[in-house]
């Protein structure tokens, strides 16, 4: 059996990793987390309006009251009152007659992310992978049926990737997203599809539920997922799942790059070992934090 040296100097056997992964799949078939869609019995409608305002402002550098009211189809008086409240609690900033998102959101997001053990253990591995591969490395988690970028490192990559930590993405069209879907219950995947659909990002995106479930089965058997220009034309990626000690899916770790660099030989021969080794390091430190 061939052993390879991991980053940090220790060796690890690929078959050993694969055997562990196979055992996890067997166990996780009995231990599945069914997270039903949460709906409020008595929703506060004004919060929906405020959320629309915040989401719309995020998509623009700045907006005036009239422009924003037209964009979300709400009365100007309602929008003005919400903006005044958001400004008072320092979540938006007003300059002249325009409003923009305030930096308080940055603080809140950083606090949440920094409290996540997966981010703490994953960040150094993401950085090291980026240095070793000169490719785009991402760490994502699932929240409300979407992928959330927890960490993005493109320091050595040729790709100008538009995502930053906190950016949301569909799960069905990326390697990291598919590797997460592959380890959720079928009922949960159905809910995600019902809520978010399977929109095409490129001509290669899987848009059929039947085809997606077939792909997820292959991913479970293989142990990692591929994205062959499904998320973005000219880009490929490979991703593997991260599990906690109860075999619950934590997230996905991905290596992505342009097609001329992530050609078939590298994608199928070189990168799987490196990716699985890196996943092993994250999981070891996440599940046994006192061994370091």
CATH class of the largest domain: Alpha Beta
In N-to-C order, the SSE pattern is EEHHHHEEHHEEEHHHEEEH
What's the pLDDT, averaged over the residues?
A: 87
Strand arrangement within the widest β-sheet reads: 7-6-5-10-9-8
Instruction: Work out the number of β strands.
Output: 10
> What structural class do you assign from the helix and strand content?
alpha+beta
Residue share in helix: 40-55%
Rounded to an integer, what's the Rg over CA atoms? 21 Å
Domain HTH iclR-type: 44-103
GO biological process, one term: regulation of DNA-templated transcription
Keywords: DNA-binding, Transcription, Transcription regulation
InterPro entries: ArsR-like_HTH (IPR011991), GAF-like_dom_sf (IPR029016), HTH_MetabolicPath_Reg (IPR050707), Tscrpt_reg_IclR_C (IPR014757), Tscrpt_reg_IclR_N (IPR005471), WH-like_DNA-bd_sf (IPR036388), WH_DNA-bd_sf (IPR036390)
